[in-house]
Amino acid sequence: MTARRLRASLKGWGGVGAMAVACALAVVFALLLPLSGSRGDGSTGIGSRGVAEGTQARAEECTDPQDRSLAPSGDESGDTITAIKKRGYLSVGVDQNSYRWGYRNPNHGGSDLEGFDIDLARRIAREILGDEKAIRFHAIPTNQRIPAIQSGQVDMVVRTMTINCERLDQVAFSAPYFKTGQQVLAPRTSPIKGYGKTLAHQRICTAAGSTAYDKLDADKKAGELVSSADISTTVPNQLDCLVRLQLGEVDAVVTDGALAASQAAQDPTVVLKGDTFTTEYYGVAMKLGADDLVRRVNQVLVDYRKSGWRASYDKWLSATLGEDSLSADPPAAKYK
Fold first, then answer.
1. 63-95 per-position pLDDT tens digit
2. Which among 118, 158, 218, 248 is placed 20 to 30 Å from 284, CA to CA?
3. In sequence order, what are the beta bridge partners of 256?
4. Please, are residues 286 and 90 in contact by the beta-carbon 8 Å criterion?
């Protein structure tokens, strides 16, 4: 398959100084953005708070979590979608500082978010509400993605969120829209070679509430990660790990390979070390019981895989991930 490769413009992104500016902007917008997209009580007020029987498999019964979503449907008569249409906009939790996924480009004027996840969120709004601008974004830290859904602050989260068995007991997921895996990011000059013995005595940063931390913690307890590896540094947002790495406060970052590649594009002094050591799938997360919305989003994804997904990948991710990576095509969808 021949895909259009786009050269990434890295102007303004390399180095600690640019990261400091990016983080300062993130703080400002983190304060402003949620206020612009929430009601007075901070809730969208849609979706059942109860857990619908059969909506998601419980974690202890779960296998192949990426294949356990509901079959797609174009029906928009359900309670959740009806409430969204009445309100007139979609409320979506996103990232605002993950380069090429959901971020504010300092080289562009204005404050609009852009990236691969933002394209998908706008496509969902367009198909449900007829207007890709009928959407309100909320900047959600990694460890607040599930609480934001459960509290009704947002209708859904489109934020590089991995589908796994534990989360299936807390939120509903769409079918997968992206395939990736955990990978190590470290300075070019580092002796670290990947996920293995060379992590001995190294300080590793992960985002709190991430599958990266869960993997490291589980492997360390099981003796599968060298015991001297220090995994105590966790941060609210993944970009904070890159800043810690640049400042010399940690020796390596573990995150999804797709995010790690984007961070390496921001700072050419860091590189991916070794191969991915897990297989993970991103999904759109929604409230348990909002079956009509889950089915409708899955129908959007059916259409998006046919037209839209490839153009977005080429625009945002091809330059860093390439055309031949495990992420270069949308994952096949299976339903329970």
1. 899 999 999 999 999 999 999 999 999 999 999
2. 218
3. 182
4. no
Largest Cα span, the chain: 57
CA distances from 122 to 90, 211, 266, 289 (A): 9, 26, 25, 23
Q: Count other C-beta atoms under 10 Å from residue 307's C-beta.
A: 9
- Asked if 37 and 75 count as a contact pair (C-beta separation under 8 A), the reply is no
How remote is the C-alpha of 290 from its chain's centroid?
20
246-267: pLDDT as tens digits:
999 999 999 999 999 988 988 9
The owner of tokens 């990011």 is 185
Q: Angle between the 291-306 and 116-129 helix axes, to the nearest 10 degrees?
A: 110
3-state secondary structure 26-47: HHHHHHHHHHHCCCCCCCCCCC
Q: Which pTM was predicted?
A: 0.80
Q: Quick one: tokens of 56? A: 């998601």
Query: Distance of CA 67 to CAs 173, 174, 179, 333, Å?
Result: 10, 9, 13, 7
Q: Which two tokens stand for residue 121?
A: 């969120």
**CA pair distance 85, 335, nearest whole angstrom:** 26
Residue 24: which residues within 8 A CB-CB, separation 6 or more?
Answer: none
Q: Which two tokens stand for residue 334?
A: 């299976």
Calculate ∠ Cα 23-28-29, nearest 5°: 95
Amino acid at 316: W
